[in-house]
Design goal:
The complex is a heterodimer. Chain A is mostly helical. Among the domains of chain A are: 1-175, no CATH class; 354-449, no CATH class. Chain A has helices at residues 8-17, 19-35, 46-52, 73-87, 95-110, 122-136, 142-148, 151-156, 163-170, 178-188, 195-208, 210-222, 232-242, 244-257, 259-268, 274-287, 292-295, 298-307, 313-326, 332-344, 349-360, 379-392, 399-411, 413-424, 429-439, 456-466, 473-481, 489-506, 509-514, 523-547, 554-557, 559-582, 585-589, 629-639, and strands at residues 39-41, 58-60, 65-68, 600-601, 610-611. In chain A, β2 and β3 form a beta hairpin. The longest helix of chain A has 25 residues, at 523-547. Chain A is elongated, with a radius of gyration of 34 Å. The N and C termini of chain A lie far apart (70 Å). Chain B has a five-stranded mixed β-sheet, with helices on both faces. Chain B has a three-stranded mixed β-sheet with strand order 6-7-8. Chain B has 23 helices and eight strands. Chain B is an alpha/beta fold. The radius of gyration of chain B is 28 Å and the shape is elongated. In chain B, β3, α3 (87-96) and β4 (112-118) form a beta-alpha-beta unit. Chain B folds into three domains: 1-166, Restriction Endonuclease; 171-295; 296-557, no CATH class. In chain B, α8 runs parallel beside α10 (267-295). The chains are: A mainly alpha, B alpha/beta. The interface between A and B is large, with 36 and 48 residues.
């Protein structure tokens, strides 16, 4: 079903001849307004979906979703009819009132939450349709109308705030002659804010109205557009889709007159033929570009070729080599674009991973942050993490890969968890430490891992490693507790022993953490709990005995030193808080009030008493650390040394 | 008048029977009585109403033999005179059970006076009955006198015969004494008032050799009394830490005065002094009896209450504990049969269970380390000594590698705390020179630990520290280099931490271990004719090092080398 029209009249005829389509579209538009969402489930709107799915009236989305194509005149016509129905008025004939009609309609469909713009770009597209309607149906010369507006008028009148963007959208639908369109676009380009919209409109011009765009192209070439940045490029991008062979040659030939624009065009063409790709690649290589303004387009060129399904294998390989060669360039803009676009390439994990050292040679480890987002699997990410720990030990900065791990986990949770498990149960202490760092780098909580899937040796490694660490026990204990159901007796024994030892570290908190996680009606859980409780009671008895010895109580016998210690600690904490909050935007713009006495405050402007709130996260600290911190840190350092 | 209230309140507070047993003979001696027997001497034996037997003069100046029956603790108030094994029975036993003393030939010829001593009152409901009993049991015609010294009488006696001599003689003395009583167990108490009181008493006494015998005796008894007050209130507060802080001060200051005034060989003076020393021994015994069972537990010297402060508190406490434990051993050896195996076992147990004992944070932690090494070497436990030394060396290295921290040469716990918390060394933190490390190297040499020498030498050289030890001036050198200072070396040692009274002697490490060993062996030891040693009390010098924190001199630590 051909549903792409350049004229509203054609769209109206189509609807008249296809009432079921009109009905379906109306139903979808009403549903969109009622449900206040732009996407539909194909299962919920199966009738409409079945009818429209082979047309350009709907656009498929993720999974089984689809949404209406408001770039299509047919859809916009139906939208206009629905709007008239809802607003109980026809589209006004006067342009500003017509645009006001669009804005009022948008406000109406936003109600009751008028600040919630749930409909994305629907309002702009409806405004664009109204401009087309006025131009095509009511014969309004919108370019003349636009030119008649002063800058002050455009700034003052809220109905005109999106006019520049609308005008960009309607270019393919205008009946004006080339010179008028050309002048108009040049005028729009004077506003930097409209530049992107104009360039987009040139592409769409070529795609939607290739016949008119072709003559416009010739006109532009003859009238100085060749020398202009970003003009012919976008026109060619649109026109290429309708006549690839001709416009590909045009792009190549453009190089002699404007090499930068030519390279840009060659970089951004949506190639559909392998021969074009091969020729383009060879052409660029042969030119041995040195001008940075031309080189800056190459990252996009190579990355787009890699992602193009028509690219021959040998060109694909050559693109990766070319990317590596580009890493030698020192231009910062090129570098940023290069690593950004390389990171966007979907798949090609091996090739991208092999490029990474070249990127890292720039001395900016932050390139890693988003680099792995489009890897198909986390294997290379974890290879990098392990190598980092083996090379740099504790100096490894896990924060650089936090985001990458998160993204990979959302895509491949099983694979990421398997890698974490492998690291945690590795024979090498530094790798285990790295595994722990990855485990807890999630932000909120830890990554779920299934320790029971490990073999006996690995389970023993995990339980004897994680529960001896002096940190993050709140997260680690629940994870390790699952090993109480291990089929291996030694694992259960070691777990019990470690929990018994933890009583000395965390006092009764061990039991308090364990209890909610166990089912005491289950014999094995009860046995475990009872054993740890017995350890606790023994510990508590000794603690009571020792606390009764006042001769060893520092609060009685070493008070000045104790007070000095905690006073200094408090000062250090306060200084750290102040330093941290000084970076907060909020505290920079908010007035800060120090409350020096009292648990609340008010002000002259607000008599309500506001209690002070404390914000904090309580963290258990292994009290054994204070017995001999040198030894704990030394042993930790040695065990996680890269040379261990 | 206020002073009497102080004294009365103190006497009333003597809750346990044996406390009254202890202080009462002090009173009698200050009153000029000759003690024949005391409760301590007759402990375990039937006393038959005669807790203390003494010869003295009554108010009329008549010399008599006194049988004192003491009632303290729960029995201090007379409420029921008829209970079994009560007062009536004791007084009858005192009257009818003969007591002989062959060492006093005229003992049996002396008239008898029985005195009921109690640090409480008699209840009005029983007074009439009691008086009736006394009248009947001790009629005037029998020539057996009776007196009852209740709390008020005791207050008068203690005030007039003991406290008024040195303690309550003027406002300043009273002020110090009051502060001692009020603040004794206050957290954060630095005991300065106690020290000031002792100094005041000794200053008032002046030259001991010029005192008559009675005033000499009163001085010793007063000092013993004051020490006992500290001991008593510490026990009452269930915290004997004050004993360690205060009693050694009394002993050392008193002994310094004795040495100063040339009385270190006077047997009478030594006798009096030993009684004061015995109180120190008793106090230390009590302290360690209570604390050792806990100190022996795994990290028993670490406190649950200290929290993060224990990073510093634990090693400081542990090393201080070791020093005082060795002092106790010296006292045990002096007062009773040495029991080296038990002492050794206890020490080793504490070392094994408390790794805080191997972590010096201050340079003067050389003192306990030296004491432990000397003790182990002296007991022929060289391997244990080596193990301990290795642990100490390892701890110092770990402290540096993890936190860039070495023991503070200026021995300031505040500086160490500041460094630990802020991770910044204050300008007062000194770690470019170390006496402790010099000492450790000398033990390494003495114990022939070549491997450890090479390893630790490499460490020390990598951090560029100067090694030296403290050499005190002898008397001639003091006259030369500290001419404004008229005291002898021994008196300096016994009265304060040595600082200006000596010099720092460099120790350089050698590439060749054997050469270093022989160098250390040939270091001229500090030799001094201590009167303290000549009096048979060499452990007092150890006590002085421990208490005032003066590092040991070469004569001690290269004993093995020599």
């Amino acid at each position: 079903m051909d549903t792409t029209f350049l004229y509203i009249k054609e769209a109206m005829d189509f609807l008249e001849n296809n009432p079921n389509v009109e009905k379906a579209l109306k139903n979808l538009v009403h549903s969109l307004i009622d449900l206040k969402r732009v996407s539909f489930k194909s299962t919920e709107f199966s009738t409409e979906h079945s009818l429209l799915r082979d047309s350009s009236l709907i656009i498929p989305g993720q999974l089984d979703q689809f949404h209406l194509n408001f770039d299509n005149l047919v859809v916009c016509k139906v939208l206009g009819d629905v709007a008239s129905s809802i607003m109980n008025e026809q589209i006004p004939k006067e342009p500003i009132e017509a645009l006001s009609f669009a804005n009022r309609f948008a406000l109406e469909i936003r109600k009751p939450k008028t600040n919630y713009y749930w409909y994305n770009s629907l309002e702009l597209k409806f405004e664009s349709y109204i401009v087309i309607f006025l131009h095509q149906i009511l014969n309004l010369d919108f370019i003349a109308f636009y030119n008649s507006l002063t800058d002050e008028k455009k700034a003052e009148d809220p109905n005109l705030k999106s006019l520049d963007l609308c005008m960009s959208n309607v270019i393919p639908y205008l009946n004006n002659d080339n010179s008028k369109i050309y002048s108009f676009l040049q005028k729009l380009l004077q506003d930097d804010g409209a530049r992107d919209a104009v360039q987009h409109s040139l592409v769409e011009f070529g795609r939607k109205n290739s016949k008119k765009a072709a003559s416009f192209y010739v006109y532009c070439k003859d009238n100085g557009a060749i020398a202009q940045t970003g003009f012919l490029v976008h026109l060619l991008l649109g026109l290429y889709e309708t006549n690839p062979d001709f416009y590909f040659e045009e792009a190549i030939n453009l190089f002699d007159q404007n090499p930068k624009e030519a390279i840009c065009t060659i970089a951004w063409l949506e190639y559909t033929k392998a021969e074009h790709i091969s020729r383009a690649f060879t052409f660029v290589e042969d030119k041995k570009l040195s001008d940075i303004n031309q080189l800056r387009h190459l990252p996009a060129f190579y990355c787009r070729l890699i992602q193009n399904k028509n690219t021959p294998q040998e060109i694909l390989n050559a693109c990766f080599k070319a990317i590596q060669k580009l890493t030698l360039q020192e231009d910062q803009q090129l570098r940023s674009d290069l690593v950004f676009r390389t990171g966007l390439i979907k798949g090609f994990d091996k090739e991208k991973y092999e490029l990474l050292p070249s990127f890292l040679s720039w001395g900016e480890p932050g390139v890693i942050r988003s680099y792995f987002d489009h890897f198909n699997s986390p294997d290379y990410l974890f290879e990098l993490i392990q190598n980092s720990y083996l090379t740099h030990g504790l100096a490894t900065n896990i924060k650089l890969v936090e985001d990458a791990v998160f993204v990979q986990h959302s895509k491949n949770p099983g694979a990421v968890e398997a890698h974490i498990l492998a690291m945690l149960s590795d024979d090498r202490p530094i790798i285990r430490f790295g595994g722990l760092q990855v485990l807890i780098c999630k932000g909120c909580g830890v990554y779920p891992v299934a320790f029971l899937s490990l073999d006996e040796k690995q389970q023993l490694t995990v339980v004897n490693f994680l529960l001896t660490l002096p940190i993050n026990i709140e997260e680690l204990l629940p994870l390790c507790l699952v090993l109480r159901n291990s089929p291996f007796e030694k694992v259960q024994q070691d777990l019990t022993q470690q929990l018994n030892d933890l009583v000395w570290a965390y006092d009764e908190h061990v039991l308090l953490m364990m209890k909610p996680l166990l089912d005491l009606s289950v014999a094995t859980d009860k046995k475990l709990y009872d054993e740890v409780e017995a350890s606790y009671l023994k510990y508590a008895a000794e603690k009571e005995l020792r606390m009764g010895i006042r001769e060893f109580d520092p609060w009685e016998n070493e008070l000045p030193y104790v007070e000095l210690f905690f006073r200094l600690e408090h000062e250090m904490d306060a200084e750290a808080m102040e330093k941290a909050s000084s970076k907060s935007v909020f505290t920079q713009i908010a007035k800060s009030i120090s409350v020096i006495r009292g648990s609340a405050f008010n002000s002259e402007h607000n008599h309500q008493i506001s209690p002070l709130n404390t914000v904090g996260v309580s963290r258990l600290v292994d009290q054994r650390y204070s017995i001999n911190p040198d030894k704990v840190e030394w042993e930790f350092k040695m065990s996680t040394s890269v040379n261990h | 008048m206020n002073e009497r209230i102080l004294v009365r309140e103190y006497l009333e507070s003597l809750n346990e029977r044996d406390e009254l047993d202890y202080v009462f003979p002090i009173l009698l001696e200050s009153m000029g009585f000759k003690i024949i027997s005391t409760p301590k001497q007759t402990q375990g034996l039937a006393q038959y109403g005669k807790d203390v037997v003494a010869i003295g003069e009554d108010r009329q100046g008549i010399r008599k033999r006194f049988y004192f029956e003491l009632k303290g603790g729960q029995d201090k108030d007379i409420i029921d005179i008829n209970k079994k094994d009560g007062i009536i029975e004791s007084l009858r036993e005192a009257k009818y059970r003969p007591y002989t003393d062959a060492s006093n030939p005229d003992f049996e010829k002396l008239p008898v006076k029985i005195v009921l001593v109690h640090n409480g009152t008699i209840h009005p409901s029983v007074k009439e009955t009691f008086d009736g009993f006394i009248k009947k049991e001790f009629p005037k015609k029998d020539n057996i006198g009776f007196a009852r010294w209740d709390i008020y009488e005791l207050t008068n006696l203690f005030t007039d015969h003991l406290f008024n001599e040195y303690l309550l003689i003027d406002k300043e003395a009273v002020k110090h004494f009051k502060k001692v009583l009020v603040l004794i167990n206050t957290p954060g108490n630095n005991y300065n008032d106690f020290f000031a009181l002792i100094d005041f008493i000794l200053q008032k006494a002046g030259d001991l050799s010029k005192l008559n015998k009675r005033r000499q005796q009163l001085l010793f008894e007063t000092l013993k009394m004051v020490s006992f007050i500290v001991y008593h209130y510490s026990k009452e507060a269930k915290n004997l830490e004050a004993i360690k802080k205060c009693l050694p001060y009394t002993i050392l200051k008193l002994w310094a005065a004795i040495v100063r005034d040339g009385l270190s060989k006077n047997s009478k003076i030594l006798d009096h002094f030993n009684k004061n020393l015995a109180l120190l021994f008793q106090g230390f015994n009590d302290y360690f009896s209570i604390t050792l069972p806990v100190a022996r537990l795994k990290n028993g010297l670490w406190s649950f209450k200290g929290g993060r402060y224990e990073k510093i508190g634990y090693p400081v406490r542990a090393l201080d504990y070791l020093s005082n434990l060795i002092v106790l051993y010296s006292l045990q050896d002096h007062f009773s049969e040495p029991n080296s195996p038990v002492q050794l076992q206890t020490l080793i147990e504490i070392l094994n269970q408390n790794d805080g004992t191997t972590r010096p944070l201050l340079d003067n932690h050389s003192i306990p380390i030296c004491l432990v090494l000397d003790f182990l070497i002296g007991q022929d436990k060289k391997e244990d000594a080596k193990n301990y030394l290795r642990n100490v060396l390892a701890s110092i290295a770990k402290g540096y590698h993890t936190h860039k921290r070495l023991p503070d040469g200026r021995n300031s716990i505040e500086s160490v705390i500041r460094f630990e918390v802020t991770r910044k060394k204050s300008v007062f933190f000194e770690d470019r020179t170390s006496h402790l490390l010099a000492l450790l190297f000398s033990y390494i040499a003495a114990l022939d630990m070549q491997e450890e020498y090479n390893g630790f030498k490499e460490f020390v050289e990598s951090i560029n520290i100067d090694l030296a030890f403290f050499m005190p001036y002898n008397d001639d050198e003091l006259a030369t280099y500290q001419s404004q200072n008229s005291k002898s070396h021994e008196l300096h040692l016994l009265t304060h931490e040595l600082y200006q009274e000596g010099y720092q002697a460099e120790l350089r490490l050698e590439k060749d271990f054997e050469f270093f060993k022989s160098k250390v062996k040939n270091i001229k030891p500090f030799s001094y004719p201590y009167k303290t040693s000549q009096s048979g009390l060499p452990f007092l010098l150890t006590l002085a090092h421990v208490y005032y924190k003066t590092p040991f001199f070469p004569c001690i630590w290269n004993r093995e080398a020599n």
